[in-house]
Amino acid sequence: MKDLSIYYTVGALLYCPANNESIAKSIIQERFGNKYSLALCLEDTIKDDCVQEAECKLITALQCIHEASLSQNFYIPKIFIRVRNPEQIPLLFDQLEAASTLITGFIIPKFALDNADAYIGAIEKLNNISNNPVYMMPIFESPTIIHLQHRAHILYALKEKLDTIAPYVLNIRVGGNDLCHTFGFRRQKDESIHSIKPIDNIFSDIITVFGMDYVVSGPVWEYYSGDGWDTGLANELKEDQLCGFLGKTAIHPNQIAIINEAYKVSRNDYEDAKAILNWSEESNKLVSGSSSRERMNEYKTHHNWARKILFMAEYYGIK
After folding, report:
1. Which residue in 52, 99, 108, 208 is deepest, having the highest Cβ count within 10 Å?
2. Domains within the chain, CATH numbers bracketed
3. What global pTM score does this model have?
4. How far is the C-alpha of 218 from the C-alpha of 206, rounded, in Å?
């Protein structure tokens, strides 16, 4: 598992079209709060004939934020750019000039065997010249991973490629809506994506292949208003965590607080995690009752769980 806190801090990743002209002002004025990450999208939220214009607006916005940060104190989220192709990565980074320091990394849409090498190469080259780490977050949403005959081969082949730059893979992300689109599925606000078995099976395979070595983030929830949308999101977040996801894509600021609340650590989990990681080496037993005397803690069995709990408590807090 990842052993540095940064991999657990993407949290609620708020998506925004890169041509949103108000985004700089919203960040400077802290309209979205002070615990979220931001994805500026140049891909499926931008019309094909508007990409160049969107790039210019993205650069202008980030330069505005950077300039403001020199004289004002405000929360600057982890900022990612969702690109369309590998060539955009070095071009945008160069054009941002001093504002490039705001970029935590790049989001790679429809990550697949036919584009993996090019994207990985672009991230490698960038890190060879950058003073700060520049991360990538590949999205598993390509229809190529749907077919059972080839899925395992494709996922393990992609993992072999990503393992070559593992320190720069901040999160693995999943494209729930893109995968649902292939089947013609769409969940209602009282339904969980984990109940859609063909999609859940794909998620399960992604967690199986990547979950031991990477943080895998949960799929987008598309409801943000109306009766029951928040309950639906909270329920799906609970299932996300049980299935191995950590963090979630957000498409509206209303969702941020609910996502952050879901990943707060319970007091019992926190106390048990501390006890497990502080287990005495001189103890003649590796099993003990929990702090609340409600369950059993095992040093060997629960060690990885405990490490993850403390990383989450550090960023999301304790309930």
Report:
1. 108
2. 5-263 (3.20.20.60), 268-316 (no CATH)
3. 0.95
4. 11
Residue with tokens 């980074």: 93
The HSE-up count of residue 39 (CA atoms within 13 Å, CB side) is: 29
Q: How does pLDDT run along the chain (319 residues), one tens digit per residue?
A: 999 999 999 999 999 999 999 999 999 999 999 999 999 999 989 999 999 999 999 999 999 999 999 999 999 999 999 999 999 999 999 999 999 999 999 999 999 999 999 999 999 999 999 999 999 999 999 999 999 999 999 999 999 999 999 999 999 999 999 999 999 999 999 999 999 999 999 999 999 999 999 999 999 999 999 999 999 999 999 999 999 999 999 999 999 999 999 999 999 999 999 999 987 666 666 678 777 778 888 888 999 999 999 999 999 999 9
Q: Are strands 296-298 and 287-289 parallel, antiparallel or unpaired?
A: antiparallel
Distance CA 190, CA 92 (A): 40
Quote the CA–CA distance of 162 and 299 in Å, as a whole number: 31
**205 neighbors 152 (Cβ within 8 angstroms):** yes
- Token readout for 64 is 């505005």
Tokens found for residue 204: 């399960």
